[in-house]
Amino acid sequence: LGIFWAACYFLYSRNDLALIFVGLFLVGICSYYSARNFSYAYLAGMAHALLLIVTLISLIDSPLENIPRSAHVFFLPLAIGVVFIFNPKDKYMGIIFPRFCLVFFAAFGVGLFDIDSSSFSPPENIRMIGCVSNYTFSTLILASIIRIYIKNLNEKVDLAFSLAQAVVKNEIMVHYQVQVDAKGKPLGAEALVRWNHPERGLLSPDKFIPLAEESLVIRDIGLEVLRQSCRLLAEWSNDSSLKDKYIAVNVSPVQLADEDFVATVIEVVQNFGVRPELIELELTESALIIDAEQAILKIQQLKDFGVQWALDDFGSGFSSLSIIKTLPVQKIKIDKQFIRDAKSNESSKNLLKKIFEISELLEMEAIVEGVEEHSQHEMLIDIGYSQFQGFLFGHPKPAPEVTEKMRSFLS
Ligand code: C2E
Ligand code: MG
Ligand code: MG
Questions:
Q1: Do residues 277 and 247 make contact, with C-beta atoms less than 8 angstroms apart?
Q2: Which of 190, 215, 219, 250 to mutate to test the pocket of ligand 1 (most atoms within 8 A of CB)?
Q3: Global pTM value
Q4: End-to-end CA distance of the chain, in Å?
């Protein structure tokens, strides 16, 4: 559309109007690019560019005697598209921006912004073609957006349906990633869930954990991960070099909110006869948002039973240090982002130093995730860190491979 209208207006020597459509063409190019490199910030920028372009075109599109206003109909697909892409939790893009588009649609529609455009309006014959084109294309875009939405929804429903059966069908796999000390010796491993989907193959947690949390299936999946981890610990207990190694298991806020959470964890750990102190449960700060008091109570009950706790992705959430201080957690896991930034940024390096000092003040152990290079490992040791996890020491792998690797390191 951008190319067509820009060419058309250049032919009529209306360079001012042509430039607006060159802008539309550029947004089209950027859309194509962003479809390959998905980024919310980028999409938000493009939505604003479209808002500006549709507003400008609508302003010059004041109705003539026999030609109605039409460009404002593009506010509708813009509003609906933004609603589908952005989460309502993002108040501005998810709620305010689409409402703004709808208000503009209505305001232009009822003639609130009608101005005498006779001096700069495009020639009448073009205006009529434009009117037909605007209604046709905006309807087509709207229909496409709704089609994509329904397709996504169906896929999500299908995925949720198969996810609900994944545990009983033995499709839940657990991979383990070693955690090491300053010398690279294994201390334990983190259990990281994978879903062996019958058609789509091995899916990583980001593809199904949000859905599992939404549908509460995460409770069954989380328990299955705990069961498999306990089974592995029971196996390790027969091996003199591995019998003291722990397994860290991620706990979703949805699991923690479950009334039976404490009792079921205790039951599983006892059933496998493993030492509770070899289970480390990892929670994120988001677990404290709904009901911090209840969450802390459950954390304490499991701690009394003997289970260890770690605070995952430290520094990426919103909890205050005063809340974290009251948590019965003995370890913090420093989020990958800090180590990633520290590579190129001196202040991030200083931040890692300060976080280490904070962990000491809180009397908590500290482990750094996402260590990928020797230089990062050395820098962290210089700061004082002594526990690490990352691709440098091993990718998450199935139990037999990790067991073998840890054994070879320790013997
Ligand atoms: P997390 O608990 O922070 O786990 C660490 C993630 O970082 C893992 O991704 C791991 O593969 C990845 N990672 C490890 N070392 C490196 C590294 O050196 N560089 C980089 N770039 N990444 C590294 P994964 O397995 O995709 O898991 C993602 C998230 O899914 C986990 O983050 C955790 O929040 C969640 N998750 C995984 N398993 C479970 C589970 O059983 N239950 C629940 N509720 N959540 C889980
Ligand atoms: Mg974790
Ligand atoms: Mg983490």
A1: no
A2: 250
A3: 0.79
A4: 68
